[in-house]
Amino acid sequence: MSQVSTAGRGSGTRGKEYLGLFSRYATIIGLLAMILAFSVLSPRAFPTVNNFTNVLNQASLTMIIAAGLTLAVIVGELDLSIGFAASLHGILVTGLIVSNKLPIPVAVIIVLAIGALIGWINGLIVTKIRVNSVIATLGVGTILTGLAFAYSAGVPIVAGVPEAFLQISLGRWLFGIPNNIIIMAVVLGGLWLLVERTSLGQEIQAVGGNPAAARLAGINVDRIKILGFIVSGVCSALTGILLASRLGSGTTSAADSYLMTAFAAVFLGSATLRDGEFHVLGTLVGALIIAFGFNGLNIFGAPTYSQYVLQGAILIIAVGLSSLGRFIAEN
Question: Are 103 and 224 in contact (CB under 8 A)?
Answer without folding.
Answer: no
